[in-house]
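User: Is it possible to get a 3D structure for a protein together with its bound compound? The compound here is NPW. I've pasted both below.
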Amino acid sequence: MKVVSGETMQQMDQRTIREFGISGLTLMENAGRGCADAICDRFGAASGRRVLIVAGKGNNGGDGYVIARYLRERGWQATVLLLASPDQIRGDAATNLERLGGEGVIIAPEGVAAYAELFPSSDLVVDALLGTGVKSEVTGVYAEAIGAINAAGVPVVAVDLPSGVDANTGRVLGVAVKAELTVTFALAKLGNVQFPGAEHSGKLVIVDIGMPKQVVDAAPGGEFVDAAAAARLVRPRRKTAHKGSSGHTLIVAGSTGKTGAAAMAAASTVRTGGGLVTLAVPESVHPILEVKTTEAMTVPVGDHGRGHFTAGAFPFLENLAQGKDAVALGPGIGAARTTFFLVQRLVEALEVPMVIDADGLNALAAAPELLGKRQGRVTVLTPHPGEMARLTGGGVADVERDRIATAVGFSARYGVHTILKGAATVIAAPDGRYAVNGSGNPGMASGGMGDTLTGILVSLLGQGYPPFDACRLGVFLHGFAADLLAAQGCGVGMHATDVQEKIPLALSRLGG
Ligand SMILES: NC(=O)C1=CN([C@@H]2O[C@H](COP(=O)(O)OP(=O)(O)OC[C@H]3O[C@@H](n4cnc5c(N)ncnc54)[C@H](OP(=O)(O)O)[C@@H]3O)[C@@H](O)[C@H]2O)[C@@H](O)CC1
Ligand SMILES: [K+]
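Assistant: Yes, that's possible. Here is the predicted structure of the complex:
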């Protein structure tokens, strides 16, 4: 499913009107009717039920007037509360306001205070205050109206976007409507699928408003990765497959106190279908990994008794990487200076597709230009916002302000694939493509989930998946496996090892 920015949607509206002769009025009619349909589908068309439509002065309010007209036809008692004076309403919105003929329309440019009782006494509130035209923090009468909508205690349907949600980033601009259902038009907006906007949107329904396919197909945007999109990426295994044809990966991981990270990365590589897994660990912890891992082969790497990798291990690891299909670098390696030197040298020297995670990323924070030297080679980085901030040299707030811009910008600059973790993980390719992940749940907020993801990614790369496919499928699979657990009642408190065990089932549900 394609997702677009607010500006792209507005350009699509304009192109439809200019090049295809479909009027804005027709688009608004289709939008309002589609929204009324979605409301009746969800809440029924029982006669006499009261709906309060809170309208702003733009075209989002215009949709609200059309919704009022259609819901009335279907037996609802619709009241429009307009938070502007009629002389502020222009164009198609003005035409549709006129069509309502003033009946059941309350003009309230001074705000909602005098109409407070209308909110809780309605059966449904429709939020048609602000859509893709929202520009800045919401204050004044609009902010008060959003407060009244959220406090009403009745179901709320948002038109296009919950008012107060930034259309591009999903940020809340001071205050935002919390909807049970959001009916959005033509394509989902980036603000509908990124948090907190995704949570404010509730269930998302996309209504076809008659935009030509050419306009929709040509629009620049990202991909929202849901189960259908992920299933299209899966490459079912050939009947003649053998371990030698399913990828041999090398995982460089572990240190004293962090052997679990190494074990989990290796196990999830196997669970994702990796043919052979070699796990290289510092020799001091090797006996532990011998016990912890079963399917993966372990290799001790000389560490002079320190319990972590040292720079001197470079030739050994460079040699070990020969003939491997993909390498993962970072789970549980720790933050020793000598380990960081080793990582930097490996990043520069190894040509094999590489996933870099955890302290592997922190090793690069001091020298991100090394990534640029890998131009043309496949590199996947899996930072959480803190690691991303260290890599970009900014703060976490800068990263989170626009997660897509951060990941896309970093990928383009250094020629890498960036997986910016967090709810609605962002996946960016070096060529500007990007995706937002739709799987996962808050139960995943625990240690070891990142190591699990690293294992999944290196496994898919090792099996020959193109890197952007491996990233999108891997991230979805990770969240989907956790969603399968949550569906069985194992939500908060799930272990990363539990998630690993669900990977094969998740993969098979996607057709793998
Ligand atoms: N043909 C089409 O285009 C179609 C569009 N469609 C619909 O139109 C919607 C987009 O309409 P839109 O462009 O009129 O913007 P909209 O979201 O109504 O808000 C803009 C108004 O809000 C104001 N405003 C902005 N920020 C504010 C703030 N923080 N606090 C307070 N006010 C603020 C701003 O005022 P200004 O600052 O410009 O004075 C302006 O007046 C789209 O989401 C979809 O629902 C569908 O019908 C399909 C066809
Ligand atoms: K809205």
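The chain has a mean pLDDT of 97. Residues 60, 127-131, 158-161, 163 surround potassium ion (ligand 2) (CB under 6 Å).
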